[in-house]
Amino acid sequence: MPSETSLINNFLSGYGRFGVNLGLARIQRLLARLGNPQNQVPIVHIAGTNGKGSVCAYLASVLSAAGYRVGRYTSPHLLDWNERICIGQTPITNEALWEHLTTVAAAIEADRTEAEAEVETPTQFEVFTAAAWSYFAAQAVDIAVIEVGLGGRLDATNVCPDPLVTAVVSLSREHWQRLGPTLADIAREKAGILKPGRPVVIGPLPKSADTVVRQRATQLGCPLYEVAPAAIESGRWRSGLEGEFIDYESGLLGEHQRVNSGIAIAILQLLQRQGWTLPTTAIQQGMATTQWPGRLQWLTWQGQRLLIDGAHNPAAAQMLRRYVDQLPQPVTWLMGMLATKDHADVFQALLRSGDTLHLVPVSGHQSADTSELTQLAQAVCPDLTCYRHETLEQSLAAIGEADTTTKVLCGSLYLVGEFLAQHHVDTTG
Predict the structure, then answer these.
(1) CB atoms within 10 A of CB 39
(2) What is the CA radius of gyration of the chain?
(3) Which of 169, 210, 286, 408 sits in a 20 to 30 Å window from 200, CA-based?
(4) How many CB atoms lie within 10 A of CB 320?
C-alpha cells in the first residue's frame, strides 16, 4: 500500500493540471460545502512580494509564546506539503492532512454530483487551502496567521470578511504576468485583502504602490499604520506604534528583518488593543526564537559553512547581497532559477567582479536554461567565472572544492528544498 506521503503527493498532483487560475468563486463554493470553516477562525492576513513569510513566522512564534493555539498557513514548502499548515511550530501530520484532503475531495465530488450545471474544478492551491481551513477549524485554534499565496484580491486565502488585522509587507515587480505590468497594478491586487474598517499595516512601499494602498484603505475606512525599519540601540532593535516602542532581538538574519519584525510588532500591538493578552516578555521571547528555514540560513555541510536563501526575485536578491557584503569576498554562488523570473535583475543584484557562479537546473520545475543564464550572467558581470552543471550533486561537489570562505546556494526556494531533501545537514550553522 502506498505511504500516506505518496497518497498526498499523488492526490495533489492530480489537481496540479488545473494550474494557477485566480478567482474566488471556486474556493467560496467549496468552503460553503465544508460549512465555511474559515469563518470559525480569527485571522491575521499577510500579503506582500517579500517578507510575508517572515512576518507570519514572527507572529506565530510570539502568539505561541503568549499561550495561544496558533494556526499558520504559508507557501511554498521546502520539503513537504505538511510545512504549509502548522499549529505553533508543529506541521500537520500525514494522517491529519490526508483526512482533511479526503474531506475536501468528498465535498468536491458531492458538489459535482448535485450541481445542475458543470462545476469548475478547484485548483491545487484552492484544494490545499480548503484543507487548511478545515484543519484549523477542527483543531479550534485561537487565531490563524494566513499568508497570501499569489496577489491578494483573487487569492484563495482572501475569503474572510472580517480579519483582525491585514498587512502589505512589501511590493516589487513579481508575478506581473498575472497581477499586471505596473507596480500600481500589483499593489491594487495586494490591497484586495483590505476589509472595511479593519486595520492595515504597511511597510515602506514604492510611491506608486503606496498611493494605491492608501487610497484603498481610505475607501474602506481602514485605519492605516505605516512601519519604518526598527531602530538599533545598544545591539537591540526597537519598534512599535507611536509611543508603544518595544526593545527586542530578532531570531532571523538580515537588515530587511528590521522592517519585517517591525510590521510584526505593530500587528501584535493592534491585537493587544483588540483585547489579546500579549505580555512584553512573550513578545520578546517569541521574536528572539523565531525560525524561518531556507531564508538567510546558515548550515554546516560537509564540514563547511553554507548560506542558503531563496532570493528568487530582484528585491530578495538585493536583501541577500546586503547581507553577503558583510562577509569575506569573493563569493562562490550556486544558483538555479525558474524560467519565469527576472534573471538579469537578480544577477545584477548579486554578482560582483571576482565571484564564481555555478549554475544548475531546478529539478522538477520549469527551470531556466543554464546555457542562457551563463551568457546573461557574463554579460551582467564580465569578470565572472561561470560553470554549468547537470545536477545539484555535481554543483555541490564543485563548490565543495572552491577555496572561497563565503559559499551561497540561492535563486529558488525549490532549489533550497531540493538541497535540504537530499542532505542531512546541521541547521545550527
Answers:
(1) 15
(2) 22
(3) 286
(4) 24
**Mean of the pLDDT values across residues 75-100?**
96
C-alpha grid cell for residue 14? 492530480
Taking Cα atoms as reference points, which of 295, 290, 289 lies closest to residue 323? Answer: 295
Q: Same domain, yes or no, for 364 and 239?
A: no
Measured CA to CA, the distance from residue 88 to residue 66 in angstroms comes to 11
d(CA 243, CA 31): 41
Distance of CA 85 to the CA centre of its chain: 13
d(CA 411, CA 323): 15
Which of 289, 292, 287 minimizes the C-alpha distance to 258?
287
Q: Maximum Cα–Cα distance for the chain, whole Å?
A: 67
Q: Clarify whether residues 229 and 341 are in a common domain.
A: no
How far apart are alpha carbons 31 and 294 in whole angstroms?
A: 32
Report the C-alpha gap between 220 and 218 in whole angstroms. Answer: 5
pLDDT digits 0-9 by tens, 295-342: 999 999 888 999 999 998 998 999 999 999 999 999 999 999 999 899
Tallying the residues shown for the chain, one arrives at 429
Where among 288, 317, 348 does a domain terminate?
A: 288
Looking at the fold, whether 325 and 228 belong to one and the same domain comes out as no
- 426 three-class SS: strand
Instruction: Burial-class residue 99 by CB neighbours within 10 Å (0-12, 13-18, 19+).
Output: middle
Reference 99, options 85, 111, 89; nearest CA is: 85
- pLDDT (0 to 100) of residue 60: 98
